[in-house]
Amino acid sequence: MPAVPSLEQLTTFLAGVPRIPLGTFPTPLVALERLSRRLGVDLWMKRDDCSGVALGGNKTRKLEYVLADARAKGFTSVVTPGPLTSNHTMMTATACRRVGLDVHCIVAGERPATPADWHGNLLLLDYLGAHLHFSPMNFADPTPEDGARLEAFCQEVTASTGGYFVPGGGTMPEAEPGYMQCIAEIAAQRGGRFDFDHVVVAYGTGSTTTGILLGLALGGFGARVHPIAIETRYAVEEAFRMKSPATLFLESAAHFGLPLTAADVPPHAVVYGFAEEGYGVANRGSDEAMRLMAEVEGFFLDTVYTAKGFAGLQGLVARGDIAPGSRVLFVHTGGLSMTPAAEKRFSG
Fold first, then answer.
1. Distance, CA of 72 to CA of 332 (rounded, Å)
2. Catalytic hit among 6, 51, 77, 86
């Protein structure tokens, strides 16, 4: 008879998964008292912008497990894709340098024409000495042909380099213990319980959301998860044909032999409508969310992920999907190195 889901079962599972320590954990869990009064909910923030690799972010947790798997399998290099502004490629390159692995980054976009055009995460990749392979496309408005071409190029570079392939965003079963660990960490910070009614997180490729769902399920915790899409529904469903969090949940459960089925997937639904301008394009809602968090609580969000995620949280509260008085956790997934990029400043 399978064990009943519990924090003990979750921590026991995590203790058996190989991991390379990279980050500074636990990250802070902070009450946002002034914003709570403003929004009429009990709002908390998990500060994974303080995760300790490069300038912080959610990729640190995933990379601890992914790179442990790569090293265990004898790889000496890693291959991974992302857009020009990708926090994932920059964090992966940084983590690879920390553990002595070489790294190839497939950059979805045009190679900058002049030295002045190298900035943000792309400039950091250059400092890290990552091998860059450009695949021209407009990531903000991709087509299915763009998606297929990028996938084929990833296969080509991986085959030619013999590297360990990490999909965009680290969306692979090997990465999922990262945010399962985060759920266990939060429960420990809350005295052994996960007492939030709602969890809100920015949604890119789905891996962070999946880890959260797996952690909640294996830990036996009840919470509704709201992944806020930071790109268009068309990009998610048509151009890149991304798997749903529920599908990723079942694939990861099977990969690790976890006693979880479709009936165990916690309640969740991807929320669209807060990033219709496309990936990496700021809008009025994200700008207002960024300013509100900074002015009221003194914390910074980034324009690509967390500002749109927090704009989504405000929208869910405003339309009643998150009821007044609910205890809400906002997962700050980091990405602050992207904030200064001029092309992402809201201008209208």
1. 30
2. 86
